[in-house]
Amino acid sequence: MEEFELIWRFFDRPAQGTATVLSVGDDCALLRPDAGYDVAVTVDTMVEGVHFFEGTNAERLGHKALAVNLSDLAAMGAIPRWVTLALTLPSVDESWLASFSKGFFELARWHRVDLIGGDTTRGPLSITVQAMGQVKRGKALRRSDAKVGDGIYLSGQLGLAGLGLKLLSNQTQVFDPEAIQKLEKPEPRVDLGMRLLNIANACIDVSDGLAADLNHILTASKVGATLEWRCLPLSNSVLAYIDESGDWSMPLVSGDDYELCFTVPAKHEAELEALGCIRIGSIEADPGLRLVKGSQLIELSPGGFNHFI
Ligand code: ADP
Ligand code: MG
After folding, report:
1. What is the DSSP letter of 264?
2. N or C, fewer C-beta in 10 Å, the chain?
3. For 38-49, what is each residue's pLDDT tens digit?
4. Mean pLDDT of 120-143
5. pLDDT by residue (tens digit) across 143-156?
6. Alpha carbon distance 291, 86 (integer Å)
7. Minimal-distance CA residue to ligand 1 atom 2
8. Within 10 Å of residue 166's Cβ, how many Cβ atoms?
């Protein structure tokens, strides 16, 4: 199969709205954001053997390659509109391409995102997706706007994807199919991100682990925070893993959860109960990230954890 037939068969789909003026097939795509909006752009690469195991289900890869980018748009409160796809393939495997394309377009249709172009090359399997969205001018959620007194919230469970990775690499006996699902098929919190536009001060998506990602908010906003261990949303399986391994830090340092972590001023906190989010701590003036766990106060610095009480 030659390159253009491959693109046409697996990646050329009709545009879903008027925001795409010209899609796959020319030298460039032409995009038309609505008047009064800024364009939000992000890109992420997934390399076989680095970001996913060899032999990972292609449909789930198609989903995840798009999902991790939509998660970045969600963290800014942007409405997803367009994506490009740069695929490097070791060979043309039609059944792999059909599955990949199915996973990719199922999620794309759900979020009404158009695949508007890309690149196809031969080499070790690597998938790069660039996502673009629009957000009301000047309204995007940033990492840098957290304020002292804000509550810190999470959109869902912590550490499930980390447990999924431990399972797939045979590092635990705790079995939970949801953990593998969460690792391989994350659901980006796009609707929540858009709803947070007039509620949250700062927002980030948890891709590298809560401690690391929340630290980005703290540094950018020049503030600190204290988290409450008893408030962290942990599944029974993650708790069982902690019992088994003795490693309570796993849900704080493992990545790939793709939940939103955001900060909210007191006047808006009541609105959050309806959104099913969990309050896990508060923003404080004192720099650094701390955790209250039973009678202990633990410093969660980016370089490691220190018990200082
Ligand atoms: P050019 O040589 O002008 O860069 P290509 O021959 O690489 O264009 O691609 C032809 C068309 O197909 C372009 O519109 C390009 O954006 C699109 N395209 C190439 N690969 C992909 C892909 N994997 N997914 C979607 N569109 C693609
Ligand atoms: Mg060209």
Report:
1. E
2. C
3. 999 999 999 999
4. 97
5. 999 999 999 999 99
6. 41
7. 27
8. 22
| Torsion, Cα of 104, 110, 112, 117 (10° steps) | 0
State yes or no: pLDDT of 257 exceeds 50. yes
- Return the ligand number nearest the Cα of 117: 1
Question: What mean pLDDT do residues 46-72 have?
Answer: 97
Neighbours of 229 (CB within 10 A): 17
CA of 86 to the centre of ligand 2 (A): 14
Residue 108 makes CB contacts below 8 A (sequence gap 6+) with 13, 66, 83, 114, 115
Q: Whose CA is nearest to atom 20 of ligand 1?
A: 119
State how far the Cα of 153 lies from the Cα of 75, in Å rounded to an integer.
Answer: 13
Nearest to residue 241, comparing CAs of 130, 161, 142?
161
- The residue whose CA has the least distance to atom 18 of ligand 1 is 118
- Asked if 177 and 268 count as a contact pair (C-beta separation under 8 A), the reply is no
Give the CA distances from residue 214 to residues 128, 223, 301, in Å, rounded to whole numbers and listed in that order: 25, 11, 11
Distance CA 206, CA 88 (A): 27
